[in-house]
Design goal:
The protein is mainly beta and 348 residues long. The chain has 1 helix and 30 strands. 6% of the residues lie in helices and 48% in strands. The strands form 9 sheets. The protein has a 4-stranded mixed sheet, with no helix packed on it. A hairpin with a 3-residue loop joins strand 23 and strand 24. The longest helix is centred in the first third of the chain and has 22 residues. It is rod-shaped, with a radius of gyration of 43 Å.
Length: 348
């Protein structure tokens, strides 16, 4: 009896240890506490991709880096997914689900139509400096349907000739061409803009020409050896170049080798040859930039071969070469400042 009892006790004890060891085996699967998908939302185009990431954590919020994740799409006709890489199939919203250990999380991916082309209208335009033209950009998909929800950015190829704002309004800045680009969804549309001057007056001198724009800027071109272009140089110019300074003129006239203009307010300015005092600045030194006439407030001016005359009210004033009495002051001497034309005449 005693041996049998002992044998049964030993067997029971061994069985207990076997069960204990089996229950304490730590090689079984780890319980998943959560799955987190990032980003939770995004937008892609048809044919485009976005990469999602799923982080698996255990019950203690420790990351389980090697835990297998199962990816699936609740809307596979809109967006498909492979190993977290979502591909846009057709426009719409696709729910992308990541599952692991009985837990899951999801992201919403919005698929939009891809931009196929951009049509900019007008396709070309010619404007003058200071003028504007409004461009419009129509964004189209591959079926030619308009995509009204797309952001368009604008850019000018040469901002010295034309600039464009965020709404496609182009402003002429300087003469010459500039291509305006509209960009959206990786596609580009364009319009060719040519900017020119609009002259209100043009005057031809002996071998050069000056013109005044509608906004009172003066440009000259042609022979420039005496500084008659007025741009600070003594070189010929084959296209109009701006006369130095930021003045606004109301009149301009080109003479033999000099030119003169009247600024708003009546001040006279001249530039170019000055051997006879035809610039009226109390000197006989030529100037390749405008110099102010020594005195007077004028309404109009006329530049001759080697002298200049201007109107101040109904009075005439002249200066420069006085040969044969061309200054009208009862004298034949040269004058480098304005002198009153004699005779008591009311000139207009």
């Amino acid at each position: 009896m005693t041996r049998a009892f002992i044998r049964v006790g030993v067997i029971s004890l061994l069985s207990f240890f076997v069960v204990f060891l089996a229950c304490s085996d730590s090689s079984g699967p780890t319980a998943v506490g959560s799955v987190t998908v990032t980003p939770t939302a995004d937008t892609i185009t048809v044919g485009g991709n976005v990469v999602l990431t799923a982080v698996v954590r255990d019950l203690a919020s420790q990351v389980l880096s090697d835990f297998a994740v199962d990816w699936s799409s609740a809307d596979p006709t809109i967006g498909s997914v492979t190993n977290g890489v979502v591909t846009g199939i057709s426009p719409g919203d696709a729910r992308i689900i990541a599952s692991a250990g009985g837990k899951s999380d999801e992201a919403t991916i919005t698929v939009i139509a891809a931009v196929s082309s951009i049509v900019v209208e007008p396709a070309s335009a010619s404007i003058v400096v200071g003028e504007t033209v409004q461009l419009t950009a129509t964004v189209l998909d591959e079926n030619g349907d308009t995509l009204t929800d797309r952001v368009v950015t604008w850019e000018a190829s040469d901002v010295s000739n034309a600039t464009v704002d965020d709404n496609g309004l182009v402003t002429g800045e300087g003469t010459g061409p500039s291509t305006i680009f509209a960009r959206s969804g990786g596609q580009i549309g364009s319009s060719s803009i040519t900017v020119t001057w609009a002259f209100a007056a043009v005057s031809a001198g002996a071998s050069f020409t000056c013109g005044m724009t509608t906004d009172g800027a003066v440009f000259c071109w042609g022979k420039g050896d005496k500084g008659q272009i007025g741009n600070g140089q003594n070189t010929d110019q084959t296209v109009p170049v701006a006369v130095s300074g930021t003045r606004t003129y109301v009149a301009v006239d080109a003479g033999g080798e000099h030119a003169c203009g009247i600024e708003v307010g009546g001040t006279g300015y001249c530039w170019g040859a000055n051997a006879f005092g035809q610039l009226g600045d109390a000197s006989t030194t030529q100037s390749n930039v405008p110099v102010s006439v020594a005195s007077g407030s004028f309404a109009s001016v006329t530049a001759g071969a080697e002298h200049t005359c201007a109107l101040a009210g109904s009075d005439g004033y002249c200066w420069g070469n006085g040969l044969v009495g061309r200054l009208g002051n009862n004298n034949t001497a040269d004058q480098n400042t304005p002198v009153l034309v004699q005779g008591g005449l009311a000139l207009t």
